[in-house]
Amino acid sequence: EPEVTQTPSHQVTQMGQEVILRCVPISNHLYFYWYRQILGQKVEFLVSFYNNEISEKSEIFDDQFSVERPDGSNFTLKIRSTKLEDSAMYFCASRGGGASGYTFGSGTRLTVV
Amino acid sequence: AQSVSQHNHHVILSEAASLELGCNYSYGGTVNLFWYVQYPGQHLQLLLKYFSGDPLVKGIKGFEAEFIKSKFSFNLRKPSVQWSDTAEYFCAVNLPNTGTASKLTFGTGTRLQVTL
Question: Is A106 on the interface with B (CB under 8 A)?
Fold first, then answer.
């Protein structure tokens, strides 16, 4: 069964540093998403991406965040200057067209120290 | 904006007991509904989804859910739980007609603990 692949699985970074979280969505999917889950809390929507541009972003997705699909394969989330409160599990998801469901990756656990 | 409520935050059941987890959403129009499961340390996996048609939806691992439009509910059920069902369960909704990349909105999750 096709999978969404995320790397790294765990990243530790110092406050103020830039991090890039990487995702390889399912190859024929059209829509791409980033979600995050702070420990013990619910899964929160960050951003959706379609046709090489952002479709929607949440209040969390401020100027410190950006997404890119640089080569038609990878889908990255960049946090420019990390804060302690950015510590969370970040999930990438992709979806095909029509009535297809969302497939989630296994997540990247980001720890900001 | 749509929202999803899961009123059971933590449920503890013995093996073989029946399970029902509540999910209510707030949106008056057409919705797509999902249940995801997250086993400890793992990613979200789709249990089942409802888009249209028969409101009783059967998913993987013996789970089913019933969409009751009049109650804005999509409760998850399983007749007999197993220890391996211990996990966090998330209800989610998206609005199919709000744009091409409609997001999922999740409930706060229900932690199910099954004891032997």
Answer: yes
Query: Which residue of B103, B105, B110, B111 is the best one to mutate when testing the A interface, meaning the one whose CB has the most A CBs within 10 A?
Result: B103
CA distance B42 to chain A (A): 6
Residue of A50, A103, A104 with shortest CB distance to B100: A50
Smallest CA-to-CA distance from B105 within A89, A98, A33 is with: A33
DSSP letters for B53-89: S-SEEE-GGG-EEEEEGGGTEEEEEESS--GGG-EEE
Instruction: Kindly report the backbone phi and psi dihedral angles of residue A64, in degrees, each rounded to the nearest multiple of 5, phi listed first.
Output: -75, -15
CB–CB contact A104 B51 (8 Å)? no
Residue A17: pLDDT over 80: yes
Cα gap B114→B116, rounded to integer Å? 7
Residues 6 or more apart whose Cβ sits within 8 Å of residue A97? A30
The 8 Å CB, 24+ separation contacts for A63-68 are A67/A32, A67/A34
Tens-place pLDDT, residues A60-70: 999 999 999 98
Contacts 24+ apart (CB under 8 A), B65-71: B65/B23, B65/B33, B65/B35, B67/B33, B71/B24
